[in-house]
Design brief:
Blueprint lengths: L5 H13 L28 H9 L6 E4 L25 E4 L10 H26 L2
Antiparallel strand pairs: 1-2
Helix pairs in contact: 2-3
C-alpha cells in the first residue's frame, strides 16, 4: 500500500473485488506475535477496515494456526521444500459471519481483532485435539 497515494490501491482493490476475486489482508501488516504462542497477535492496523469500507464489503475473518513450521517468525521467507513427512499440520478456521464495517476504522479494527482472537483460540484447541 502506498501511504502517499492510497486511492490508487483502493480503486485497484475495488476492481479486483468487483471481478469476484477475494483479497487476503493481514491486519497486522507483518508476521508478529510471540513465537510458539499461536494466539498472540501484534498491533492491528486499520487498512483492512478502511479497504472494506471503501469497497462496501464485509470482512471474513480467518485464523491460521501451525504456520510456524512453514514460516517461522525468525525467518525472512517461508521454508519451501520441507519434507512432507515431518511437516506439521496448518489449520485454517473461518468464521461463519462477515464482519460489517461502518466507517469508523478504529472501532472496526477492534471488532476484527476480537473475532480473530476468538477464532485463534478455537483453532488452537482444534489443532491440539487433532495433532497431539
Amino acid at each position: 500500500m502506498d501511504r502517499n497515494d492510497p486511492a490508487v490501491h483502493l480503486e485497484g482493490a475495488r476492481r479486483v473485488l468487483d471481478a469476484g476475486i477475494p483479497i487476503l489482508v493481514m491486519p497486522e501488516g507483518a508476521l508478529s506475535g510471540k513465537p510458539g504462542d499461536p494466539t498472540s497477535l501484534g498491533r492491528f492496523k486499520t487498512g483492512a477496515a478502511r479497504l472494506a469500507c471503501h469497497c462496501d464489503v464485509g470482512i471474513w475473518p480467518l485464523a491460521l494456526v501451525g504456520t510456524d513450521s512453514v514460516w517461522p517468525r525468525s525467518r525472512r521467507f517461508p521454508r519451501f521444500g520441507i519434507n512432507p513427512l515431518r511437516r506439521r499440520h496448518v489449520l485454517v478456521l473461518g468464521d461463519d459471519k462477515l464482519i460489517p464495517v461502518g466507517g469508523d476504522a478504529a472501532a472496526d479494527r477492534e471488532r476484527i481483532r476480537e473475532r480473530m482472537v476468538k477464532l485463534l483460540h478455537e483453532a488452537t484447541e482444534l489443532r491440539s485435539a487433532r495433532c497431539p
